Amino acid sequence: MKPVQLLDPAGDLHPHPDWPLDITPELTRDLYRKMRLARRLDEEALALQRQGELGLWLQVLGQEASQVGSITGVRASDHVFPSYREHAAAMCRGITPAELLIQWRGNAHSGWDPERYRFHIYTLVLAAQLLHATGYAMGVQRDGADELVLTYFGDGSSSEGDANEAFNWAAAAGAPVLFFCQNNGWAISTPPQIQMRAPLHQRAAGFGLDAHLVDGNDVLAVHAVTRGVADQVRSGSGPAFIEAITYRMAGHSTSDDPGRYRTDSEVDGWRTRDPLARMELLLEKQGWSDAAYLSELDLECKELGTEVRRICKELPLPELDERFDQVLAERPELLTEQRAGYRDLVASFVD
Amino acid sequence: MPVLTLSKALNTGMRRALEDDPKVVVMGEDVGGLGGVFRVTDGLQKDFGSQRVIDTPLAESGIVGTAIGLALRGYRPVCEIQFDGFVYPAFNQIVSQLAKMRARTAGRLSLPVVIRIPVGGGIGAVEHHSESNEAYFAHTAGLRVVCCSDPQDAHWMLREAISGSDPVIFYEPKRRYWTKGEVAEDATDSSVLAMTKARVVRPGTDLTLLTYGGMVQVCLQAAEAAVEDGRDIEVIDLRSLSPLDAETITASVNRTGRAVVVHEAPTFAGLGAEIGSLVTERCFYRLQAPVLRVGAFDLPYPPAKLEEQFLPDIDRVLDAVDRSFAW
């Protein structure tokens, strides 16, 4: 199977008979803008981590097209179960920089109300969320709702038992879930050839999932394929699987040293396939970007950067006291005693 | 008041829950047409349909993981894990996801998921079918861990677990599935003991036996036998293993001055260690002897022909009682 591509790295369009897309200046500019903003957030967050303001950051650099293309291919009413690197997708749902950063600053385990954004909290244990998505989709099915569930995961996650249980179960139940794999080339330091013999989309087909392969650095292709596949899932055809071939330009996390396991030439090769660069070429070739649009976008990115730096340092510190009420619906007596003991101890110290 | 087996009491408890709330779904391996390997869900799929009583693929992590998704969608899943020794593939979903979601979201999300697990030995089963793994789950904040021991409790604790807001690991002692007892199915909530409470099942003055599940009956028999020695022993069914009802436990031991904890699980790092510590800390000046533990040996569960020797029985309980009085 050849990855679906509508826009090549040179910025030229190649219409695909199976995935029609009305490529308007508005759509192109909107997708480009969303990717630019995500990249700016990523750059600021990386800088903040290097300054010691964030404990950890997982860069989305290079994967903007996979995320922006897919999240804009489903409806705002569709529920999303992300992994932990879906910052671009989260931003598209309106999740704010403060809500995104608070987890990585260490002030909370999650930053946003999942129901408000129809976007579940990040899941750090690989593939666990794929089962949550499947269960949620079974609920959608039972409710007879006109919704689907979009869930993100990576090539590494696909080796987990939970991923395989989710593919199988979703297919058997005909649940309206769209599994979106960002195959970004590296599971920390492990390349796909060590993890798997059968390509992911082929494996998905074996589970009975409607499987697709797309150029994950082509936002137009990802958008067109996701939208088309989502329509099929919504029509009751059962779950589907999209494998987006993309590349993690940075390390797995800010604690990672990708220089230990991959070559500069590999990274440079992918740099020529940058998802933003080809959109810039397209906009230019088509005459869809003028100075006003670009300067306005530059300004918006700059303001986002300023906002990210400002809010990071203002994020509210958590209180240990509150944690005692967040374990069970009703605080147990033993926990009340433990809290009181801690309070007494703290109160006993003279400053 | 109907007399039901513990297994039937669980069945009617789930039936009531399914009737009362259309969001309740029962799910697990073979729970539908077969009615579960212990027939606890017998007839439920016939009456509520396969959308409410769901035969799942053979995937324990999947059962708990999808139950989490269903709960996030507003459903109240009641999962059955077929045997205690099969819960381990679901361990990650239980301790990392189910137990933690409320804390991870600072209280925004609740996961009302009940995981029913037939627990313990005494029925001559093959390996992985007689495990007592309550300590693993009791150690995890964010879970309620309860264990029923008679039909009335089985019925009402299950109904309470299903209607509550928290994830509950609900243990059902296998050896007690066929025990009969009266079940007040239409009792008002106020006349039913909350599942968070321990219950004095036999009042006594000289020593407290603290136990739960399949060992409650063993302890009651031991207490009766001890009467011959002139000892009046109190037996407490803990019911809630996490959180513990410290009030009932300490009130009893403060009166009797002696405590022995009895459970089927291996002794090392078991619930007995936690309870012994709690009692020592709170009843130290009233204690006439150290808190003693009677548990299984620290061995993997043995073949069925050895389980009678492996598990605590009346003699081992009475031996611990003697040791306490000899102090």
Automatic annotation (TrEMBL), chain A:
Protein family according to the UniProt entry:
Belongs to the BCKDHA family.
Listed under catalytic activity are: N(6)-[(R)-lipoyl]-L-lysyl-[protein] + 3-methyl-2-oxobutanoate + H(+) = N(6)-[(R)-S(8)-2-methylpropanoyldihydrolipoyl]-L-lysyl-[protein] + CO2
Obligatory cofactor(s): thiamine diphosphate
Keywords associated with the record: Oxidoreductase, Pyruvate, Thiamine pyrophosphate
User: Which Gene Ontology BP annotations are present?
Assistant: branched-chain amino acid catabolic process
Supply the name of the protein: 2-oxoisovalerate dehydrogenase subunit alpha
Q: Which organism is it from?
A: Nakamurella alba
The EC number(s) given in the record are: 1.2.4.4
Q: What the protein does?
A: The branched-chain alpha-keto dehydrogenase complex catalyzes the overall conversion of alpha-keto acids to acyl-CoA and CO(2). It contains multiple copies of three enzymatic components: branched-chain alpha-keto acid decarboxylase (E1), lipoamide acyltransferase (E2) and lipoamide dehydrogenase (E3).
Coiled-coil spans are none
**EC top class, in one word?**
oxidoreductase
What domain of life does the native source organism fall in? Bacteria
Short name of any one Pfam family annotated for the protein: E1_dh
Automatic annotation (TrEMBL), chain B:
The Transketolase-like pyrimidine-binding domain covers 4-179
Tell me the SMART domains matching this sequence.
Answer: Transket_pyr (SM00861)
Highest taxon listed in the record's lineage? Bacteria
Which Pfam families does the UniProt record give? Transket_pyr, Transketolase_C
Q: State one molecular function term (GO).
A: oxidoreductase activity
Has UniProt tagged this entry with the keyword DNA-binding?
Answer: no
* The protein's required cofactors: thiamine diphosphate
Instruction: Could you list this entry's UniProt keywords, alphabetically sorted.
Output: Oxidoreductase, Thiamine pyrophosphate
| The keyword DNA repair belongs to this UniProt entry's keyword annotation | no
Q: What is the name of this protein?
A: Alpha-ketoacid dehydrogenase subunit beta
Q: Which organism is it from?
A: Nakamurella alba
Lineage, highest ranks first: Bacteria, Bacillati, Actinomycetota, Actinomycetes, Nakamurellales
